[in-house]
Structure formats: C-alpha cells, structure tokens
Amino acid sequence: MTKKKPSETKTGAAAPAAGASRKTLLLALIVGLAAGVMTAVFLLAVPNPSGTGQVSTTGKALIGGPFTLTDATGKRVTDKDFAGKPMLVYFGFTNCPDVCPAGLQVIAAALDRLGDKAKSVTPLFITVDPERDTPELLGKYVASFHSGIVGLSGSPEDIAAVTKAYRVYAKKAPDAERPGEYNVDHSSFMYLMNANGEFVKHFPHSVDAGQLAEEVAKVL
Ligand code: NI
C-alpha cells in the first residue's frame, strides 16, 4: 500500500478509510475461508500412522454411523447389535441383474477363505429397494449366497437414512426390458468397518475374493 499525500488525508479521510476497512474485512474473510478449506483438506488426508503408506480418512462421520433396520425375522436391529465385531457392509437389491450377485459371490468366497475367522466379521447386505425387498425375501436371497450374510431391509425412511450415512447413491430407473418395472441404479462398494463401527476401507464389487479376505483379516 502506498502512503497517502497529506492533502488527500485531510480532504477525503472518511470515505477512503471506510473503503479500506471494507477491503480489510473482505481480505480477512477470504483468508479465513481459505484456512478453513485447508484445514478440511488436511483432516481428510492425514497419513495412516500404521505406516502402510496409504491415506486413510479420519472423520468418523464421513462414512457410516447409526442405523435402525429390519432383519429377516422381522426384528428391528441397530448398529449397536453388531458392535464389537467388524462389519462388511454392502448395498444392493434382489432384482439387481448382475452387479449385486457378483459382489455377493465375492463376499461369499472371501468368507469361505476366512474359514473359522469369518465368524468374527458381520457381512451385511442392505437393500436399496425396500418396497420390493421385504425382510423375509432379502433374508432368503442372501442365504442363497452364504449363510453368514445378514440381509437388512426397513422402511423407505430407514433405507434413506442408512444410504445417506454410507454415502450410497441409489435411484429408481424404469426397466427398459420389463415395462412397468423398475431397476435401482446404485453405487456398489463394500465398506469395511472396524469393531468400533468406524470406516476402514472400501472395495469395488469386482474386488478379488482373496484380497478382500486378506483386508478383512487385518481388522479381526
Ligand atoms: Ni446391484
């Protein structure tokens, strides 16, 4: 900033001073916002202290959280019912033509590879189609892949809440091959949560069963 000549200071002191303070305020606001953004970015990318070289998310609230759903027997269950064991959480629906079955096959194969250790993890399959996937139907569906997988349904509100918590995209779309029917377009990740219910890692539905089993074993 250049120094003002004495004449300018005397003649127009009030107006320029107000302008300057507005600029200062604006600058302070921008600096403050930038600092806030930097802090947020830093919090999202704190290096994993375990030294694996991977970057892990630290915000507990980012993926996962409390839920209330209905199991195959019609019982209302919450995340607290599964506390104390890691969870492998996968979302989909029974009418899904190929992606969900492929993902469930991978989960089933990973559970088989884990052998006895599979009892120490809870694999959940949560529907994104609560209108068609009744708890009972969903239970039968997941049992056809592996007896260890827990199918969870609920009211549309229950499902909306849990998909939001896990950052799952799910949207109804007309089925081109079956007039009057619909599909549900949805993201298809498996979320590995530790025994405290905190997000550890996610995998695509196409993950290798051996790799998935290995990653699950790490948190047991
Ligand atoms: Ni699917």
Detailed description of the structure:
The protein is α/β, with parallel strands linked by helices and 220 residues long. It folds into two domains: 6-44; 68-218, Glutaredoxin, CATH 3.40.30. It has six helices and nine strands; from the N terminus they run ααβββαβαβαββββα. The chain has helices spanning 6-11, 14-44, 99-114, 135-143, 156-165, 209-218; strands spanning 68-70, 76-78, 87-92, 122-127, 150-152, 170-174, 182-186, 189-193, 199-204. The strands form three sheets. It has a five-stranded mixed sheet with strand order 5-4-3-8-9. Strands 1-2 form a two-stranded antiparallel sheet. The chain has a two-stranded antiparallel sheet with strand order 6-7. The protein is globular and about 45 Å long. The chain starts with 5 loop residues before the first helix and ends with a helix. 30% of the residues are buried. The chain binds nickel (II) ion. Nickel (II) ion binds at residues 92-93, 96, 99-100, 186, 188.
